[in-house]
Amino acid sequence: MARMRTVYNCSDCGAAHYKWAGKCDSCGAWNSLVEDVEDPAESVTLAAGMALVPPGTPQPLSTLSSATGKPTPTTIGELDRVLDGGLVPGSVTLLGGEPGIGKSTLLLQLLAAWPKKSLYVTAEESAQQVRLRAERLHALRDDVWLLSEASLTNIVAAIDSVAPTLIVIDSIQAVADPTLGSAPGSVVQVRGCAYRLVQEAKSRNIPVILVGHVTKEGGLAGPRVLEHVVDTVLSFEGDRHHALRLLRAVKHRFGSTSELGLFEMTETGLAGVPDASQMFLADRRPGTPGSIVVPTLEGQRPLLVEVQALTNPVSSGVPPRRSAQGLDPGRLAMLLAVLERRARLSLSSTRCTPLSSVV
Ligand SMILES: Nc1ncnc2c1ncn2[C@@H]1O[C@H](COP(=O)(O)OP(=O)(O)O)[C@@H](O)[C@H]1O
Ligand SMILES: [Mg+2]
Ligand SMILES: [Zn+2]
């Protein structure tokens, strides 16, 4: 057996370094290098994978059935929109997002809506906590099986005995493989456990969903470490002080990544928002200066959003400044420059040109 060497893995992108440094060479993140043992994942799982998966048999392409690769709808409309139809059997999806954004909520609702037997593995919350959440979400169903466990070996044994048709692992950072000599949450553990769960998904031909916490800095390996290991990466975002939640596909091997899913966090869980324009414009006061409604396209869905602008004279000696929220400031500067030069709209002084005088 090879001697374990100390390496420093970037908890942001997973790159290995043989010397500690304050900044990752690979992704540029600061203070993201964490001491770890050398990643045995690739060689170990390759060997294990060869034993698990029967040898491939060549066959004519035309005789293969196309039905097996078809997505199964989750019946959660906004999730199916982002997944381009649903969950593909044998696929592995990573759901990333900050703590408290609603990942466990969404997945518990998904399992309750799934028509067949499913398994929810909670590696960081107790079974009672999950049960309480399920009660609040009206998600108690006999077909949803629960396992409170953090050891990968025991999780795989439970998958064998339950034989679910969908598995959720909440979260991948809390799961550890006791055979890997590395701390839970480290790059080596997170990647090694994910490799193993990918093999379980492929050999059983069932979808597996991994939850990954997005961490601003430090200790836990972030979802980016797993991006190339999984088929699909979903990102769940939103503002803690607002009920709106956005779901996007960052990577999707089975469809487009352009669709946006919209949810609202309510007391009984996440509710899809099919008519988002109405929600965005609900508190708009028509007739207010500096406010317009702009149609935009997010994937296949048109959205009406309000854009607000405000100008104010600067006091003498202070250089004028433009700032933007929710818009790329560089793009804003370019559009304003084009309007000034080509449409001769004077936008750099507070004296504005009447629109009728623009040629
Ligand atoms: N009783 C409640 N009523 C309404 N919303 C709740 C309630 N309890 C929790 N939540 C919402 O659920 C969120 C936690 O969701 P959770 O699925 O546990 O997030 P994550 O798994 O991403 O950490 C809280 O931030 C809050 O918005
Ligand atoms: Mg959670
Ligand atoms: Zn990095």
Q: Largest beta sheet, briefly?
A: 9 strands, mixed
The secondary-structure class comes to alpha/beta
What best-fitting shape do the alpha-carbon axes yield?
Answer: globular
CATH topology-level name of the largest domain: Rossmann fold
Distance between the termini: 78 Å
What's the total count of β strands? 14
CATH class type of the largest domain? Alpha Beta
**Share of residues in helices:** 10-25%
Q: Which runs of at least 5 residues are low in confidence (pLDDT < 50)?
A: 43-52
Describe the model.
This protein is of the alpha/beta class and 359 residues long. The protein has three domains: 39-45 and 71-274, Rossmann fold (3-Layer(aba) Sandwich); 275-310, no CATH class; 323-359, no CATH class. It contains eight helices and 14 strands. Helix 1 packs parallel to helix 6. It is globular. Residues 97, 99-105, 136, 265, 267 line the site of adenosine-5'-diphosphate (ADP).
Short description:
The protein has 359 residues and is α/β, with parallel strands linked by helices.
